[in-house]
Amino acid sequence: MAKGYWIAHVTLTDADKYPAYVKANAVAFEKYGAKFLVRGGAAQVMEGDSRERHVVIEFDSYEKALECYNSPEYAAALKLRQECAETDAIVVEGYDP
Predict the structure, then answer these.
(1) Residues 35, 58: contact at Cβ < 8 Å?
(2) Which residues make Cβ contacts (< 8 Å) with residue 14, sequence separation at least 6?
């Protein structure tokens, strides 16, 4: 079964509020087995446009990734994130040869 991934590109609009989102999202991420592969860090744009922060989160399956994003636990965190960041986010199914 292919893994599932969240890929997000984020621009903080209120850095002081962002830690509350990070604390709140931990509840959903623990419940759904999220594993951070990328969480900020150095990045260099090679082509196209970009935001300042990049995140890649791995889940055991595409379905788990969707369940987490649509969960009541994440809905509470999402509301906090929308108050402090502009985000482009997708859920994508991993490659399973």
Answers:
(1) yes
(2) 83, 84, 85
Residue closest to 34 by CA, chosen among 96, 88, 82, 77: 77
* % residues pLDDT > 70 (the chain): 100
- What would the two tokens of residue 85 be? 């960041």
Answer yes or no: pTM beyond 0.90. yes
CB atoms within 10 A of CB 54: 16
Q: Domains in the chain: how many in total?
A: 1
- CATH number of the CATH domain containing 79: 3.30.70.100
Q: Which domain holds residue 35?
A: 4-93
